[in-house]
Write a structure and sequence with these properties.
Length: 382
């Protein structure tokens, strides 16, 4: 029995229905894709019949400019501008071997789209397939030319090129190299570096930097200290998640400032968003970018035996107490809350402390008169 006409059927289904076929009776090179638990019907997701892949991949197709190709080289899974670009609609596509952005022979919709500018539609043909002058043959010649240009590019640069940083520009048809040492560190490069021209230093380290953040204390609104801006310095942040050759670290410390800024910006994205659009002031400043085999620590860090705040989460060793009855800390107002908390936690029971502020004004514009208030907050938190 002839299937009921349906506007959503693909071109293959419409042709087979006109020839008298049905969902139960059809050629062996097509199939009806439906779940096993459903009745076989042409009213399905594919719009009716679909080609058996073993058959369609062996068929010959032709581009608008006359190039032949096999179905295996074509793409048949795109829906664009109301058209299903599939084998079943005789509208599969292929990447143009000439890579012409402007071609008046291909479908007008493919001429207007930037991403699809190198694609064109193909149609099935009864012609016998010939390798010479086919898409496969032209791609082989094109790849050979790209490899030849790659060798020539390396000779022009006297061998100071790296495949990881090179790309072939499809628009200019030339090789380019954009050296980014951050990629070398991320990929754990080691051994001979053709760009630098020598073996990478086996000594490993990282790129460390400090982040100074400033924010408005909204919790002080309605008090004497309304409008106070606090400042904090987070020391020893790392650019890489793993140790990297010191040669790469030194180059990244000079050339990858934008990478560091982007990483910090992403970390404080929420605070910066509310600062820009909701008036909750927040800013950051990157300081003291350096390449080191291990993080350098200031006097208080060394005295307390502390790592950076970034490394603190991975430490499991219990912090030892300070063996002192009296501890005098000069310029204590320059110490951030995290380090202050560690200091107070390290004091042994009964120890006395003398805390001397840095000057008449604390960081962020806090007057020296509230110094005791800030210290009190430290005791309350730890």
């Amino acid at each position: 029995m002839r299937e009921k006409e349906h506007d959503e059927y693909n071109a293959l289904t419409k042709r087979l229905l006109e020839e008298g076929y049905s969902a139960e009776h059809h050629p062996d090179y097509v199939r009806v894709d439906v779940p096993m638990w459903q009745e076989k019907t042409l009213d399905n997701y594919d719009g009716g019949f679909t080609y058996e892949r073993w058959w369609i991949f062996e068929q010959t197709f032709k581009t608008p400019c006359g190039l032949q190709c096999k179905g295996l080289q074509c793409h048949s899974n795109m829906s664009y501008m109301g058209i299903e670009w599939t084998f079943e609609n005789d509208m599969a596509t292929i990447h143009c071997p000439y890579e012409k952005k402007e071609c008046k022979l291909k479908h007008e919709y493919l001429q207007e789209h930037g991403v699809l500018r190198y694609d064109c539609e193909v149609h099935m043909t009864e012609e016998e397939y010939c390798y010479e002058g086919s898409v496969e043959h032209i791609l082989k010649l094109h790849d050979d030319e790209i490899r030849r240009q790659e060798i020539s590019f390396g000779l022009q640069k006297k061998g100071r090129v790296c495949r990881e940083h090179m790309r072939f520009n499809r628009d200019t048809l030339e090789w380019e190299m954009n050296y980014d040492p951050y990629d070398c560190g991320r990929n754990r490069c080691a051994g001979m570096c053709p760009v630098l021209g020598h073996e990478l230093d086996k000594k490993r380290g990282n790129v460390f930097y400090d982040v100074k953040i400033s924010w408005l204390r909204n919790d002080l609104n309605g008090t004497l200290f309304e409008g106070q801006v606090d400042t904090r310095i987070i020391k020893g942040k790392k650019l890489f998640e793993h140790p990297v050759s010191m040669d790469i670290c030194k180059i990244c410390a000079r050339l990858c400032q934008d990478r560091i800024k982007e990483k910090v910006w992403n970390h404080y994205f929420t605070e910066l968003f509310f600062s820009e659009y909701h008036g909750r002031y927040f800013s950051f400043e990157i300081q003291n970018v350096r390449a080191e085999s291990r993080e350098s620590r200031d006097l208080m860090h060394s005295g307390l035996g502390l790592a950076s705040e970034e490394d603190e989460g991975s430490r499991t060793k219990k912090q030892d107490s300070l063996d002192a009855d009296l501890v005098i800390v000069d310029e204590f107002s320059m110490v951030d809350m995290w380090l202050a908390g560690k200091f107070f936690s390290a004091l042994k029971k009964g120890a006395k402390t003398v805390l001397v502020p840095a000057g008449p004004v604390l960081p962020g514009g806090c007057p020296a008169g509230c110094f005791g208030h800030c210290v009190g907050n430290c005791f309350q938190q730890w």
